[in-house]
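Problem 12. The chain below contains 161 residues. Write out its predicted structure in token notation.
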Amino acid sequence: MNDDLPLRFREATLADLPQLVALLANDALGKQREQLAHPLPPAYIRAFHQIDRDPQHELMLALLEDQIVGTFQLSFLPYLTYQGGLRAQIEAVRVHPAHRGSGIGRQMIHWAIERAKARGAHLIQLTTDKQRPAAIRFYESLGFRPTHEGMKLHVQSIESP
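Solution.
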């Protein structure tokens, strides 16, 4: 593991979208829910534009030289609790398979934490599927704790082409 890789971070552009979807689809769970096709299904493009327009959401890339090696979404959620506090939500964390175990994920999460602090977040939260025990261990190694039980309700199926 190398926590000193010279990573750069930048927001994703529409041109990056095919590579991002490829990263999201590149594991057992992602293969079940993503649709990696050329051209990409329009739903990805619509979602990208929604994220890109909203200043409360940042779709980030980690780059090693000019190669995309990771991605995550950082969302800022205003709350009335905690006296009107701002929470940061980290989602869709992925590292390119050729670079897993190299410290890139650790650097991405550290960057996200610092970005959240800079935006005034009082709390940083994330979810990970219970079927990803290695991810759970990884997040715990960074100081995240399983303080709440998360629950989800799928109310609509994903459309197929």
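Discussion. The longest helix spans residues 104-118. Students who got a different answer should revisit the alignment rule from Section 12.3.
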